[in-house]
Amino acid sequence: MEATTEKKVILQVDHLKQYFPIKTNSIFKPKTYVKAVDDVSFQLYEGETLSIVGESGCGKSTTGRAILRLDEPTGGIVQYSGKNILELNKKELRKLRGDLQVIFQDPFASLNPRQTVKQILNEAMAIQDVVDKSHRLDRMLELLGYVGLPPESLDRYPHEFSGGQRQRIGIARALAVNPKLIICDEAVSALDVSIQAQILNLLKKLQKQFQLTFLFISHDLSVVRHISDRVMVMYLGKVVEIAEKKSLFDSPLHPYTKALLSSIPVPNPALKRDRVILKGDVPSPIDPPSGCRFHTRCPFATDICKQKEPALREIERNHFVSCHLAEELSH
User: Fold this and answer.
1) CB under 8 Å to 141, separation ≥6 — which residues?
2) 227-280 tens-digit pLDDT
3) CA–CA separation, 155 vs 265, rounded Å?
4) Are 20 and 36 in contact (CB under 8 A)?
5) CB count in 10 Å sphere of residue 82
6) What tens digit of pLDDT does each residue of 60-113 get?
7) What is the pLDDT of residues 270-296, one digit of tens each?
8) How far is CA 240 from CA 48, 112, 175, 248, in A?
9) What is d(CA 122, CA 139) in angstroms, rounded to the nearest whole number?
10) What is the 3-state secondary structure (H, E, C) of the chain?
């Protein structure tokens, strides 16, 4: 899958799979797996924000964790700067982690409650050996300034901060090792709406300041609309659509994407919208449907959808969709 673009590819993911085995009590039962991520491929360009969206359980967070090898992937290729991350040994992987950082969903759970902010930031710099010991305090104060926290924050513990402030500490920790790519895993979903906006604006400002690349994982389409350059939609472990933000929001091609976008609240009670209500529930990733995984809930499904899995195709310029009926539904 090659998009026509002159931008530099910073991350290339090909056929990524993440299967989790299910324990059975019988030796005679065949081993079964939860197919959380099943043959996912995409490119991430330098300096952009690519958002991954979808319902809970679609595999978006698992994709992020597999790329970083926080969970060991079942298969596939993840290339960063010409190296396959999945083939690196522990020493090589640790060195690479300076370039690849993550901001987690829950800022309280991801920060050590027994460490002060000073210890948290110092630990990150010490592990990656990015700043000389004598200059670390200056660097910490600089990082606090970048994320909008006062210098006296260094001697406080995570429980002494609000949720938004804790997330700023998480961002400062990620920046401490001079990363090039940051995976934001539901980085604002645990925050109030007003705080969400502040953190999103901060991320955009830092991206411009340090030429960062973001892989932004979220279920909130309003947030995605604000921060993204491109959007990738996942359903039941598969990529169903990838497009530039404007193209995806203005003219979605996949029926699932159309249903997702129709559910975005509009702050105007007088405006009538055509809601697409999907029938049934999301099938189990242990035993996904044959053919197109969305056919059990798709109002347009035909026989070919039930039998043959659709390939991810470029229907319009830089607009990829995995649907047999994409051309018909686009008119």
Assistant:
1) 151, 154
2) 999 999 999 999 999 999 999 999 999 999 998 888 777 766 666 667 777 777
3) 42
4) yes
5) 6
6) 999 999 999 999 999 999 999 889 999 999 989 988 988 999 998 887 888 999
7) 666 677 777 778 888 888 899 999 999
8) 20, 37, 32, 12
9) 9
10) CCCCCCCCEEEEEEEEEEEEEECCCCCCCCCEEEEEEEEEEEEEECCCEEEEECCCCCCHHHHHHHHHCCCCCCEEEEEECCEEHHHCCHHHHHHHCCCEEEECCCCCCCCCCCCCHHHHHHHHHHHHCCCCHHHHHHHHHHHHHHHCCCHHHHHCCHHHCCHHHHHHHHHHHHHCCCCCEEEEECCCCCCCHHHHHHHHHHHHHHHHHHCCEEEEECCCHHHHHHHCCEEEEEECCEEEEEEEHHHHHHCCCCHHHHHHHHCCCCCCCCCCCCCCCCCCCCCCCCCCCCCCCCCCCCCCCCHHHHHCCCCCEEEECCEEECCCCHHHHCC
Cα atoms in the Cβ-side hemisphere of radius 13 Å centred on 107: 28
Q: Taking a C-beta distance cutoff of 8 angstroms, is the pair 9, 181 a contact?
A: no
Pairing of strands 100-103, 313-316: unpaired
**According to the model, what pLDDT value does residue 331 have?**
62
CA 289 – CA 256 distance, rounded (Å): 15
Residue 224 in tokens: 């995605």
Polymer length in residues for the chain? 331
83-84, strands of its sheet edge to edge = 32-45, 9-22, 75-80, 83-84
Distance set, CA 222 to CA 34, 200, 204, 272 (Å): 30, 11, 15, 18
Q: CA nearest 292: which of 278, 312, 271? A: 312
